[in-house]
Amino acid sequence: MLSQILPVLLFGCILGLNITNKLIVCSFLFILSVLITNLMAKLYHTANTLSIAMLCVLGSLALNWYNINILFIGSSAAITISLFCSTNLFNILDKKFALSFPISNLISSAIVAIIDSIIVSVALLNKFQINKVVEICIKDCVFKLSYVSVITICIYAILYFIEHLRKTNVASKA
């Protein structure tokens, strides 16, 4: 069930990224996309995760063909590169270093958030002056890193709650 929902959610997030122009919403949708991709990387094989992510980006491009400009192409390139880096980095942290899902997600999302902000800022150089682009880049990084932190805390809280429920159920059965 979850394996069927995740690609649809990822497509919705990527499509939403290209529809909205609010920085705070774009940052949230980006981090949500990275979280979904990392979750898919945990559940699927890396090649499957990357192919699903690329299909979602291509589908978003196809649905927004009428709006293609340098900023749109830069945004699509940024999300493509970011999801690729996130999946590979997450797999390295998860498999090679055997870190937990929340920690692997936190590290990969934080690194990729900075990479994405820089790529999008380069695309914005064509539209804004350099000082405005730097300001947007810093705000974007702050929003993304804040979202990553909050999501990690929420994941830990949910995992703690599930573990507490398991212990309570085991104790009540004994």
Kindly describe this structure.
- The radius of gyration is 18 Å and the shape is globular.
- It is built from 6 helices and no strands.
- It has helices at 2-19, 23-43, 46-63, 70-96, 101-124, 130-173.
- Helix 2 (23-43) packs antiparallel against helix 3 (46-63), helix 2 crosses helix 6 (130-173) and helix 5 (101-124) packs antiparallel against helix 6.
- The protein is 87% helix and 0% strand.
- It has 174 residues and is mainly α.
- The chain has one domain (2-173).
Q: Calculate the mean pLDDT score and round it.
A: 93
Quote the beta fraction: under 5%
The assembly state of the depicted protein chains is single chain
Share in helix: over 70%
Amino- and carboxy-terminal Cα gap = 32 Å
What is the β-strand count? Answer: 0
Overall radius of gyration: 18 Å
Instruction: Please give the count of helices.
Output: 6
The total tally of domains equals: 1
Low-confidence stretches: none
Global geometry: globular
What's the story with the biggest beta sheet? none
What structural category characterises the helix and strand content? mainly alpha
Order of helices and strands: HHHHHH
Summarize the structure.
This protein is mainly α. The protein has one domain.
List the helices and strands and how they pair.
Blueprint: H1 2-19, H2 23-43, H3 46-63, H4 70-96, H5 101-124, H6 130-173
Notable characteristics:
transmembrane; 174 residues; membrane; mainly alpha; transmembrane helix
